[in-house]
Structures are given as C-alpha cells and as structure tokens.
Amino acid sequence: MKNSIKIIVGILTVFMFTSCYNTKRSSKVWIPKGQDLFLKTSGQPVVTDSIHLKGGAQATIKDQTGHLQVTFRTTPDSDTTKDIAGDNHANQFYAHFPKQGYAGSKSFKYIEQAPVFQAVSVPFKVRPRANDSIPYEVSTSANVGFAFGWEFTHKWYSNIYEGGSGLKSRTRQFSYAPSVFFGPTTVALKNGNTNNLIGKDRTILGLNAGAMMVFGVSRFDVGLAAGFDWGLGKPSKNWIYQGKPWFGLVVGFEFIK
Description:
Layout: H1 2-19, E1 28-31, E2 36-40, E3 47-52, E4 57-64, E5 67-72, E6 93-94, E7 98-99, E8 102-103, E9 108-127, E10 137-140, E11 145-162, E12 166-189, E13 202-217, E14 220-231, E15 245-253
Antiparallel strand pairs: 1-4, 1-9, 2-3, 4-5, 5-6, 7-8, 9-10, 9-11, 9-15, 11-12, 12-13, 13-14, 14-15
C-alpha cells in the first residue's frame, strides 16, 4: 500500500511540474477570407483606408491596447491593387471596426498554429473484452502522459468601448490538438484480470502510450485517447490486458498559456 501511494504521489508531482511548461505561441497567424481590415494614421483614431480579404492570408499580429495590429507576410488576395505586404508603417492594418471613431461589436477571426507540449492524464480507461469471463473493464488509475502535438487555436478578437475606461479588447478562443503521448501509469493486478495467478491483489508501475485528440477552452483541455499499457516486472506477464488497446478520456491543464 505504501509503495502504491509513493507511485501515485510521484506521478502527480510530475504532472504538476510538466504542466507548467507550454510552447511559446508564435505571432504568425492565418487570417481567413471575407474579413475587413483598416488602416489608420499614426496617433489618430481615424480610418484612412480599408481592405476586404478575398482569400486567406498569412500575417503577423501584435496585440496593442484596444487594437490588433496586422502586418501581412505575403500580399493577400484583396480588393486593393496596392502591395500591402511587408513590415513598414504604411502596411500596418488594424482589426478595428469604426463606430464614431472607435470599435464596434463585430469580431475578427484568426488562427494560430504551433507545436504544443504538455502533461495530460487519462483518468478513465475502457478496456475491450479480453476473454469470455470479462466482457470489458473500466479502470481508474493514477497516470500521466507527456504529450506532443500540433495545436490549432481559433481566436475571435473584438473591441469594446467603455465610457470612462477607454477602448478595450477581448478574445474568445477554441483549440484542438492531435497529439501522441507516452508516460508512466499504475496497473492494478487482481485475480480477476490475471487468471488467478498472482495470489493477492497488488498495484505495480507501468507505461502507457498512444494517440489522442484534445480540445481546449481557455486553460482547460479535454479529449479522447486510444493507447496501450504495459506493466513492469514479472507479475505483469499474467495480466490479461498487457499490451492490449484501451480507449479513454483525457484531461489536461496548462498553468501557463
């Protein structure tokens, strides 16, 4: 029992530590077609020009107070004949929707793509039928996976003007990340899943690996996974689920995002 507690505490400690690490976001984004961007004179809240995107475009963004500055990396397909790509003042557009000199309520969408590394846990695993006496098994165990994948984050940026507080902004976001994972887990050995060959119930250390799709809103992540478990040590050779597939629910938490 004491060894099991040590294993669980160790896994949870690793989970908390690795969750504090997250790949730094890139400012390079993809802007979907059908949106408007505005050009305004430096220091003035007055729109001097605007463009309408006929196609998607790659850009670099900078979140300023009350404004989202957009600089195109390549010339987009738009309703202007000007060369508006490049990092110079004349080509700095804003996702800013004028309403009496300030922003309106319409939102501006852009998509970030970036590699992501985080800690995840699979608290519930469903193991398919192993033999005639056990049709399937739902197991709960302490485990952590070190997941690496590619995350797509859809963001909706909007400006709001609050009387007395000035121009502000808010961003809603939703993300999804196909990933692979690998990490330690605990394996509960019982007579029922070892063909009565272990004598007494025990918990041993094991490894789990697989693939998953994780969806995120704000700092909380949840998703589905499929993988395999391998118990370590001689007792695990009698485990009927050794190296066999399972399906589970994934949860993750990013302390830094």
